[in-house]
Fold these 3 entries.
Entry 1:
Amino acid sequence: MSQPTLKAAMIPVTPFQQNCTLLWCTETNRGVVIDPGGNIDSIMDAVAKTGVTVEKIVLTHGHIDHAGGAAELKERLGVDIEGPHEADLFLLQTLEQTGRGYGIAGLRNVVPDRWFNEGDVLQVGNQRFDVRHAPGHSPGSVVFVNPENKLAIVGDVLFAGSIGRTDLPGGDHGTLLRSIRDKLMPLEDDYVFICGHGPASTIGQERASNPFLR
C-alpha cells in the first residue's frame, strides 16, 4: 500500500476550539498552516515538533477563530497569506473589533497577499489542491480538494453531522446548502474532509447520515 503524500496535524486554537491545521507534503516536508485563529505559540510549537518548512498561511474564510492570528503568524514565519475569496474582506478588516465583542484581545485585522477564486490551485509542496468558492457560511468561504489523496479541507462549510452556521454577517442558509451540493457532494464517498471544528469525516458518511443534507 502506498504511503500518503500528505499529512496533517490539528492544533485546537481560540476559545472556539477551532481546528488550525498544519498540512504538509511528505515528499518535500513543505507545508502550510490553515486557519491560524490564535494561540500562535501552540502553532509554532507544532511546526517545530514536525520540522515542517511552512511556505504559506492559508485561510478558508474570514471569521475571527480562523483568521484572528494570521497577521502575527505571518510576521513570525515570514510567509505570505493566501485566501479566502475577496468577498470576506469586510470580515478580515474588522477582526480586532469583532474580537473585542467576544472579549478576545490581541486579534489583528489582515489582508491576504493572494485572494482565491473558483478554479485556482493551492500548492502544498508537490501536492495540488483545487480551490472551490463555497459561500453561505460566509460570502468568501473556500474549500480545497486534493484528488490524489482524496482529501478535502472545508473550513466551516460542512461538519461531521452538521453544517456551518449562517446567522453571522453575510451568511445565508440556502447559499450554503447549494455550495455543499455543488462543490462537495460530487466528490466520491471515500473522500476524507477536515473541518474547522470537531472530528474529520467522509463525504460518504455525511451523504448517508447528515440530517441537513437530506
Entry 2:
Amino acid sequence: MTPTSRTPLRTPALTLAAAAAAVVVLAGCVPNNPTTDSESGGSGGSAAAALTVTSTDDACEVSAAEAASGTLTFDVANEGTKVTEFYLMAADGLRIVGEVENIAPGASRTLTVTAQPGDYQTVCKPGMIGAGVGRADFSVSGERVEITGEDAELKQEAITLYAAFVKDQVAQLLPETEDFVALYVDGDDEAARAEFPLVRASYERIEPVAEALGDLDPRIDYREVDAVAEGLDWTGFHRIEKDLWEPAPGALNSDGETDAFQDWAPSTPEERAEFGRLLVEDVTELYDFVHSDELTSFLSDQGVDWISNGAIGLLDEVATGKITGEEDWWSGTDLYDFAANVEGSKMAFSLVSDLAERTGAEGETLVTEIDGGYSALEEELAKHGSLSDGFVSYSELTDADKKQLSDLINALAEPLSQLTTTVLA
C-alpha cells in the first residue's frame, strides 16, 4: 500500500529556507559582457557568439571544439525523433559541468555555463537514457575567470549558503537511509514502505550535486530501465523499491513495456543485506564529499551559474520523470519526489534571484514571473497532499490532474530557462 499519510518529518524540510530569504544579496557572477580573445586581444570570457549544437538520434554536432574561458552559451537544437539532453562534461567523462534536458523533437534550449580553462567533453543523449552519442573533446583556453570586488563577496555568500543547505540535507539523508535499510533488511516491509518516499526527499532536493559526481547518482537512484540501458548493475533506492512493492503477475516493467517478472525474483535475505549495504555505502560517500572542503571548492570552480542551472535541472527532473509517473514505478510515490524537486529548485533560485533583479527592470520582471510560477505549481500540488502529511498515490491522479500539473511546470520552465543568462548578463 502506498503511503498516503504520516506524522511530520523528523527534521524540518528546508531548515535554511528562512535564512535564504533573510539574505538580501546572495550571489555573484562572472564579469559582465566578456569578450572573445579576437575582440580583446586577451583571454577574457567568450560570450560574443553562442555555440550551436545539433542533436539527432545518432549524432551530436557542436559548432566548435574550443572556446575562450568565461561565459559559454550552447544553443541546442533537437533535429532527431526522440527527446534529448545535452551535457558539458569534465575531461574524465563522468562529472557533469552543465546540462540541459527535456529537449523535444523540433525544439531548442540553451545551456549557459561559466567555463574555466581546461579540457571537457560534449555529448547528447537521445531518449535521455544510455551512454549518449557524439561524445567529443572540447577545450577551453585563456586565463582563469576571477571575480573581484563586490561580486566576489556576493558569489561567495551564495556558495556558502548553498553548501550549507546541501550539507543539511545530506546530514538528514544518511541516518534516515540507515534506518530505512535496517527495516528493509529485517523484512519489516510495511514500515520500510512508509519510510521510502520520506527518506528520498532530502536526496531529491540536492540531486544535481550527486549527479555531478560521476556514477554516484546512478548507483543511488537509477531506475531499472536506465541501468539496463547503460549496462550497469542495478542498485539503490529503486532496486529496493521493487522488492517492497513486488510487481503483480502481468505487470509491466519500469520501461512500460517489458514483463516485470522477466528475469526477476524477489531478493533473498542475503541479497537484501547486500543491496542495503551498498545503498548506505553510496550515501555515505555523498555525505563525506559534501562535508569536506571539496564541495565548496567544486561550487567555487563551477560558479554561481551552476546553482541557477541546478534550479532549472531540478524542474527538468519533474518534467521528465515525476510528471509521467515513471520515477517511482512500483510504489506510486512520485508526488513526494515531485514536491522535493520543486523545493530544491526554488531554494537554488532564491540564491540567485537578487542577482537577476540587479540587472534592471527585465530581471525584476523575470524574478516576479518565476516566483509566481512556483507559487501556482505549489498551490496545485498541495491539492494532492504534502510531504509532512502524505501524498495520494500517483495512480489516483486523473488525466486532468496530470495535465494541469504539466501545464504549470511548462509555464514555470519557460522563464526559469532564462535565469542563468540573466544572472550572468
Entry 3:
Amino acid sequence: MSVLWNLWHGCIKISEGCKNCYVFRRDSLYGIDSKQVYKTKNFDLPLKRKRDKSYKIAPGEHVWTCFTSDFFIENADEWRDEAWQIINQRKDLTFSMATKRVERVQNCLPDNWGTGYDNVTILCSVENQKQAELRLPVFRQLPFKQKSIICEPLIGPVDLSDLLKGGWIDKVIVGGESGDSSRVCHYDWVMEIRKACIENNVSFIFKQTGTLFMKDGKNYKIPRRHQSWQARKAGINVDSNYYILHELFCLLK
C-alpha cells in the first residue's frame, strides 16, 4: 500500500520543468497562491493514531512525501528537522521524496543521518539534458542509501548513458507532462532513456505518457485517465516494482 504525505504545500518555480506545474494549476482553480509555502494540517500524519491507538498509516506502507512542494525548499527550513524526526520515528514505513533542489540537500540532513536512513529514498527530478548535467553529478555525491531519477515532465531528450555509470542509481522513472498547456513527450526520448538504463543495469519505469505524446511520427492527445494505462500498455518497464508507482499516479490525479 502507498499513501501521500504532503506535510507542507506551495513551491517556487526554479527550472523549465516547473512551467506547467500541476500544483499551481490546481491551486489556481481555488484562488490559492502556490508561491506561499505553508505547513499543512497533515504535517504529523505518520504519527496520528486511530481510536484503537494503532497508527493511521499502518506499518509496512510506503509514503510518498511532499509531492505538492519540494522537501528541500528554503521556505520550509524551520519545519524540516521535525519532519526528519517523524520519519526516523516511523522506521516501520518507507518514504520517498523528489527534489529539484539537490544542491541544498547536504545542508538539510539531520545530525544522525550518517550514510542515510534505511527507510528513505530520494528522487532527483530532471526534465531535460541541461538539468540532468547540472543536477546528477551533485546528486551522485549525496549520502542516501536509495537513489532514483525521475524524468517527469520529460520535455526534451536526455542522454543518461554516461551519467548512470557506476551502479549508483536504483531506478529511472519517466513520464510526460499533463494538462491543457502540456509540452509534447516523444516516445523516442523514452526509449533512449530505457536503453541507457539497460546498458547500465538500472531499473526503468515508464510511468505515464503525458497529454501530448508523439510516437512513430504521429501526435496523440491522451486523456489523463488513460496516460498511465497507455504507458503500461507499451510493455517496456524493466522493474518488478512498477505498481507502487502506479499507486502514486492514482494518488496525484
